[in-house]
Amino acid sequence: MTVPELSWTSARDLAGLIRRGEVSPVDVVEAVLDRIDRINPAINAYCTVTAEQAREAARGAEQAVARGAVLGPLHGVPFSLKDLTPTRGIRTTMGSKIFEHQVPEEDAILVGRLRDAGAILLGKTNTPEFGCKPFTDNRIFGATRNPWARDRSAGGSSGGAAAAVAAGRPAHRAALGHAPPDVRVQLQRVPGHHGAVRFYGRGAAGGAPDRRGL
Fold first, then answer.
1. Considering the chain, what percentage of its residues have pLDDT values greater than 70?
2. pLDDT below 50 — which residues of the chain?
3. Cα angle at 195 between 152 and 198, to 5 degrees?
4. What are 91-135's pLDDT values in tens digits?
5. Separation between Cα atoms, residue 156 and residue 158, nearest integer Å
6. By three-state DSSP, how is residue 181 classified?
7. Per DSSP, which regions of 58-119 are E strands?
8. How far apart are CA 186 and CA 82, in angstroms?
9. Which of 7, 18, 31, 126: CA 20 to 30 A from 167?
10. Are residues 131 and 155 in contact, defined by beta-carbon separation less than 8 angstroms?
11. What pLDDT score does 143 carry?
């Protein structure tokens, strides 16, 4: 498959292709990283790219397929996380100068579950400070641009996530791994109203959410 084809393949289809040995996790990750390199400078969707970690995980995923190991449902599928979500050993700023140099010591619950399912983290997407604005910019990384019209906003608070999906990266058209912030209406509606992409989500089934999962 070509780089554009891999970049626009859904997470479900991509997981099936990898499971059947029709595409390599290494090729998938390289294709998406290549697209990030080419497109991200113009739209600023990603604020952190974990390229080498992703490549290492992809090689491990490829070896697991080759030896016939039991594979998770998202084995080899790349995903990104909004820069509000704690990731062990990876800078997590929450879009705020207060946390500009924060490097969490543990993953959020959702990150651990995605990793356990075999998904491969590519990096973090841009967010307004603490996810509390309907457009995406901050004093650390600047503004995220709408891929369809770069003089316009991608919305917020998931503008980075929306711009990444709309531009065909990563290969997670369902926005895997983007945790809903407290201002959940922004995640679900505003990026769509700004023309980038539409998100669908729901909150916790009941009780207070675990803070480590935000």
1. 79
2. 171-189, 192-196, 198-204
3. 135
4. 999 999 999 999 999 999 999 999 999 999 999 999 999 999 999
5. 4
6. coil
7. 78-82
8. 13
9. 18
10. no
11. 97
Is there a contact between 196 and 147 (Cβ–Cβ < 8 Å)? yes
The residues facing 87 across adjacent strands are 90
Q: Is 20 exposed, middle or buried (0-12, 13-18, 19+ CB in 10 A)?
A: exposed
Report the distance separating Cα 66 and Cα 100, nearest Å: 40
**What number of helices (H) and strands (E) belong to the chain?**
8, 7
Q: Is the peptide bond prior to 157 cis by the omega test (within 30 degrees of 0)?
A: yes
CA angle 19, 164, 188 (to 5 degrees): 100
Instruction: Answer whether the bond into residue 41 is a cis peptide, omega within 30°.
Output: no
Residue 69 CA to chain centroid, in angstroms?
26
Cα–Cα distance measured from residue 203 to residue 214, given in angstroms and rounded to the nearest whole number: 11
